[in-house]
Amino acid sequence: MADHSAQQVVDTVAWVLIEDGRILCGRPRGKDVFFIPGGKREPGETDTETLVREVAEELSVAIDPESAAHVGTYAAPVPGHDNLIVTMACYTADYRGVLTASSEIEALAWFSLADRDRVPPVDQLLFDDLAAAGLLR
């Protein structure tokens, strides 16, 4: 018999793009929360493959897979979903192209630490680490 109290995990990969002490975030269509760009891993995908695919879908730029560097992996509950945890493997990476919100993304914004409360709990953990490292102001 299945244990329905077991927590489910949403496995995601995110792109950390910082410029001038601010991090790029996007707001998907129909949502009021901003997220670090990225998304859910497809079955069999590596972190880098997920990163390249999701960033291309959301921001219309090409990630250089060779430049991808792991920043950290974070986990936090999903607000309003008691048994749901999101894990987020975060990477920096170089890119080619012009950052453009795709059909999935309604708005792009550069967030500072002061915008921490505008992103989900898992993203807030990343914000805290980046601020502690002096990368996010």
TrEMBL record:
PROSITE patterns for the chain: NUDIX (PS51462)
Assigned keywords, A-Z: Hydrolase
Matches recorded under Gene3D superfamilies: Nucleoside Triphosphate Pyrophosphohydrolase
UniProt KW Hydrolase keyword: yes
Cofactor: Mg(2+)
Top-level taxonomic group: Bacteria
GO molecular function: hydrolase activity
Domain Nudix hydrolase span(s) in chain numbering: 8-132
InterPro entries linked to this entry: NUDIX_hydrolase-like_dom_sf (IPR015797), NUDIX_hydrolase_dom (IPR000086)
UniProt protein name: DNA mismatch repair protein MutT
Species of origin: Nocardia camponoti
